[in-house]
Design goal:
alpha+beta; 2 domains; 7-stranded antiparallel beta sheet; 4-stranded mixed beta sheet; elongated
Length: 235
């Protein structure tokens, strides 16, 4: 089996697996898997004979990066177990080791380098760098080559980490000149907003909590009560 890591996908023997992936996507390419619950929101999908484990991610992670498709497409992690490194629970480790080869953008790459101020990674060879939305971590000694006789020999962890696109929304609200309906019930108002803004997409600006906080230059976490209040105040 040959794996080629690209910008937002991996190529498995000429078949494309785009991230975030669904379990049916895995089945179409790799067949059946052993499923082990990770928690109430995620599963491990283990291909014992292939030496590969995939894993879901919390949908909030994908929503923060504007990469959420639906609740079926949550698979964003994959590990190729090649050497004897075992950092996961035994039940989550494939019975056999990965026996194929791995390349990056169609080539053998010497190392990985993290870019300054970003969670994205570059693949490096002879001073040449290549940006990707898939973050890669290689287990093993950095001083040793990743390849032996043309074959990748270290356990590899891949994480789909797309860069969030820059928002162009303007969240400054101007007072309308025409007569307006005034809502006295906030919940009813939010129901109307849901229909007009999110279902019909005709009410602007389209509110996204992560874009809004960036627009307000807030670095606080979205789960805090302060930011929930900020969103309520906006509406």
């Amino acid at each position: 089996m040959n794996i080629d890591v690209r910008d937002t996908e991996i190529i498995i023997d000429s078949k494309v697996l785009a991230f975030p992936a669904s379990f049916s996507d895995l089945q179409d390419i790799l067949g059946e898997a052993r499923i082990v619950p990770k928690n109430d929101r995620a599963n491990y999908y283990i291909f014992d004979k292939l030496g590969i484990t995939f894993c879901d991610v919390d949908e909030r992670y994908l929503k923060r990066r504007k990469a959420f498709i639906d609740k079926e497409h949550l698979i964003s992690y994959v590990t190729f177990f090649i050497d004897d490194t075992e950092l996961m629970n035994e039940a989550e480790i494939p019975a056999e080791r990965f026996n194929g080869n791995i390349t990056f953008f169609g080539r053998e790459w010497d190392s990985l380098k993290k870019s300054d101020g970003s969670s994205q990674y570059f693949f490096c060879k002879d001073g040449e760098y290549r940006f990707a939305h898939i973050k890669a971590i290689i287990r093993g000694n950095d001083d040793e080559s990743n390849y032996t006789d043309g074959r990748f020999t270290k356990t590899l962890y891949l994480t789909f980490a797309p860069e969030r696109p820059k928002s162009t929304e303007n969240y400054n609200i101007s007072a309308p000149q025409e007569d307006c309906v005034t809502f006295t019930n906030l919940n009813f108002k939010l129901a109307v907003v849901q229909e007009l803004m999110y279902n019909m997409e005709i009410l602007k600006p389209y509110f996204d909590i992560y874009d809004y906080l960036k627009f307000k230059k807030s670095k606080a976490k979205t789960e805090t009560e302060k930011n929930i209040k900020a969103a309520i105040d906006f509406f």
